[in-house]
Amino acid sequence: MSKRPNRKSVPKTPVAALIESFAHDLRGVTHVNGKAVFVDGALPGEEVEFVYTDIRRDYAEARVARVITPAPNRIEPRCPHFGVCGGCSLQHLDEHQQIVIKQNLLMEQFCRIGKVEPEEIWPPLTGPHWGYRHKARLGVKWVTKKGKVLVGFREKASSFLAELGTCLVLHPKVGERLPDLSVMIESLSIRDQVPQIEVAVGDERAALVFRVLGPPAQDDLEILRGFGRRFGFDIYLQPKGPDSVFALWPENPPLLGYALPENGVEFRFQPTDFTQVNVAINRKMVNRVLEALDPQAGDEILDLFCGIGNFTLPLARKAAQVIGVEGGAEAVARARQNAADNGLDNVAFHVADLTQPQDSSPWANRRYDKVLLDPSRAGAMEILAYAGKWSASRIVYVSCNPSTLARDAGILVNGQGYRLVKAGVMDMFPNTTHVESIALFELF
User: Would you name the residues annotated as active-site residues?
Assistant: First the structure.
């Protein structure tokens, strides 16, 4: 295992180089004396000067110091904090080209990792590039030397918070209020004991969950309530773990919500529940899943990693029965309530850790007409061991990690008798290196 060198040994003199390609994390790649150098902020085809940030035995890391010859698709970043804030790192690349690059990356991962290739490529799903983010975790830090509270995301390649005046990818209701949040927290007696704010924006309401490491004084509570009243936020406190979250203002706020109008369903959720960050892309994604699975009136469908029912309920509008499985008991409880609120009685939900064997789970050991998977970044390798028992004619896989999707595609195609019919990307996180994708498999 290579050891990290002493920082003093990293050369400080800029090095000129031609950027050859993108790495899997969308940094530029060049070679110096035969060693790969991953250059942050560089685009393929550019001539740049870079400075080293780290040198390992097999590779090196660097950042752009100066662009000598820019690529045709390089643009001026819109955000004034680009290059300092680590929240998004592709603002220097043309919006159309961002999604093209992500699609190329997905295809490369299929080929290299899964040894598979889709028969057809879906056109990318795209949406707004700014103000799209409805969910986020903001860091908070009282900085004595600055005499102020910082609220936002970490600096690039750093544990320090960036000093932000705005965030253009956050929903404007929150992204334009970062300075107001800073000033408000500075006025608290526990200003140095608020490390995090969880943001959740629904169709009609917005909530802020303040993590607090010490008990707020009565004056603090009134300041927080006043902030909620003034700017129209539901205010929650989290004094300990996730189970300790409680509403401060209003005392009993209604749940947040979002609708899928084309699918005839509405969802209610707590601010700490997992929901997709990009509402516009989520609506398009649900429609693509329905198109790909093609649920029929007599179908029995398995929805794995179902969360609060984002796909389960639209599927239930068309199928005979849908079984949803999720690892979190709270999410399953919310999914059951959402099904009831939408008048759906042809759904059933189970709590199960899908990274563990499910030999004793009846739902895992039976046949289904179709299957949907929407796992975390770790993928779905363990539960795919049961795909032979499902014998589903179609499997749709929604992924937030192209490398684990490619790995699992290899399992389905090379070990479970499926063919990879279609695949494509969805612009869930514009201006970032995050790649959201979808794949359709059909049984031979």
Answer: 400
